[in-house]
């Protein structure tokens, strides 16, 4: 294990927001910053997501669950309205869509890749 703490710090202010693209699908108005990349999974289980006003992420399943913290703004998930400072734990197998009327920034911990569901 690398014992230099500097190798474990992500300076998010220095990172540009990247458009969210998964499996060649671009989600208009949704942007991502990776906080931690897991080379074994080839993905980032810890991310920041930014939703522009009116943006949405489609109906999906969380095989490994999810932890979500609203840093700023407002977001609607599965009929619940969350605002800055709210936390949501979704258990494994939970399905929902996500939308934000005014826009928001979210911290997400997603242990396993989400599965999109055609609704």
Automatic annotation (TrEMBL):
Q: Which InterPro entries match?
A: ChrR-like_cupin_dom, RmlC-like_jellyroll, RmlC_Cupin_sf
Q: Where is the ChrR-like cupin domain?
A: 7-106
- Which superkingdom, per the lineage? Bacteria
SUPFAM superfamilies from the xrefs? RmlC-like cupins
Name by which UniProt lists this protein: Cupin domain-containing protein
Organism listed in the record: Arachidicoccus ginsenosidivorans
């Amino acid at each position: 294990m690398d014992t230099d703490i500097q190798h474990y710090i992500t300076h998010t202010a220095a990172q540009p927001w990247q458009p969210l693209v998964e499996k060649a699908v671009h989600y208009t108005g949704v942007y991502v910053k990776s906080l931690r990349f897991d080379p074994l999974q080839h993905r980032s289980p810890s991310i920041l997501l930014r939703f522009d006003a009116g943006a949405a992420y489609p109906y999906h399943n969380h095989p490994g669950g999810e932890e979500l913290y609203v840093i700023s703004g407002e977001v609607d998930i599965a009929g619940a309205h969350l605002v800055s400072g709210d936390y949501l734990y979704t258990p494994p197998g939970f399905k929902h869509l996500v939308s934000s009327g005014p826009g928001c920034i979210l911290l997400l911990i997603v242990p396993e890749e989400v599965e999109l569901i055609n609704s």
